[in-house]
Design goal:
By secondary structure, the protein is mainly α. Helix content is about 70%, strand content about 0%. It contains three helices and no strands.
Length: about 80
């Protein structure tokens, strides 16, 4: 599925898009946006992992659950 949108660019950005985007400016913009989406997701995951690592109560709870791994029961 594709969608159309209209954006307003500053002159420098427009010149760069024309130069870097080549004949398929839409593909170029799509690629930039998807890369930014991946960077944003990675940043959010790293932040969540740091928060989890800093949460002492959560880490203590994990330690309690880890003890059940060697209970001898079949999965």
């Amino acid at each position: 599925m594709t969608n159309r949108t209209t954006v307003t660019l500053q002159d420098d950005a427009f010149v760069f898009l024309n130069h870097a985007g080549g004949e398929n400016k839409s593909a170029f913009v799509n690629q930039l946006l998807l890369e930014e989406k991946r960077r944003s997701l990675k940043k959010a995951l790293l932040k969540a992992n740091r928060e989890e690592a800093d949460d002492i109560a959560y880490q203590e709870e994990l330690e309690e659950w880890d003890q059940t791994l060697s209970d001898g029961l079949e999965p």
